[in-house]
Amino acid sequence: MNKVTTNQIEKEIEIAASLSRVWRAITDYREFGDWFRVNLTSPFVVGEITRGQITHPGYEHVTMEVVVEAIQPEHRFAFWWRPYAIDPAVDYSSEPRTLVEFILSASPDGTIVRVTESGFDGIPAHRRDEAFRMNDNGWAAQLKNIQNHVNQTPSAS
Predict the structure, then answer these.
(1) How far apart are CA 21 and CA 74, in angstroms?
(2) Which stretches does DSSP call E strand in the chain?
(3) Cα dihedral across residues 45, 157, 53, 133: positive or negative
(4) DSSP code of 96?
(5) Which of 142, 119, 141 is nearest to 131 (CA)?
(6) Which intervals hold domain Activator of Hsp90 ATPase homologue 1/2-like C-terminal (predicted)?
(7) What is the DSSP string of 24-56?
(8) What is the mean pLDDT of the chain?
(9) How far apart are CA 62 and CA 87, in angstroms?
(10) Which of 57, 63, 84, 151 is most buried, taking the most CB atoms under 10 A from its CB?
(11) Under the phi-then-psi rule, with left for phi > 0, alpha for psi from -120 to 50, and beta for the rest, what region is 125?
């Protein structure tokens, strides 16, 4: 299922792995960094900022910064960030953030992962459409990255 509105992106994938394994891939900052291609410097902690350098080719100049909203074990992981804030000449600090939520649920064949990013209507109009388009494509790719990561490292810790 892929659901798109002008304010929210929603993507879903089923991964043939246990809920605990997929949860760890999403919430352990080192594993998250492996599949997301970011070198995070600290664990995810509710109410705190976690940041790191993007390692994806062409985006190495970007520092990712998230504020963790929620960690509800094996169910919901959520953070706030500034979408597609990639121009080093622009100060994005006054822009509102969007909320990214990972919701996990068990399925007969493994784990369903739903990622939702909402709040695009608050992004400045001059860059809203591009941020939305890039993140819509990005989340589709990142769900595949989670699946590949879990399949390639089934017992990673």
Answers:
(1) 9
(2) 2-4, 8-15, 38-40, 49-54, 63-72, 76-81, 98-107, 110-118
(3) negative
(4) P
(5) 119
(6) 17-150
(7) HHHHSHHHHHHHHTEEE-S---TTSEEEEEE-S
(8) 95
(9) 8
(10) 84
(11) alpha
Strand pairing class (8-15; 63-72): unpaired
Residue-wise over 47-84: b if at least 16 C-beta within 10 A, else e? eeebebbbeeeeeeebebbbbbbebeebeebbbbbbbb
Q: Are 94 and 122 in contact (CB under 8 A)?
A: no
Q: Are 19 and 30 in contact (CB under 8 A)?
A: no
Amino acid, res. 112: I
pLDDT score of 6? 80
pLDDT for position 56: 94
From the CB of residue 14, how many other CB atoms can be counted at a distance below 10 Å?
15
pLDDT value at residue 154? 83
Dump pLDDT digits (tens) for 11-43: 999 999 999 999 999 999 999 999 999 999 999
Q: What does the pLDDT look like over 55-72, one tens digit per residue?
A: 999 999 999 999 999 999
Q: pTM here?
A: 0.94
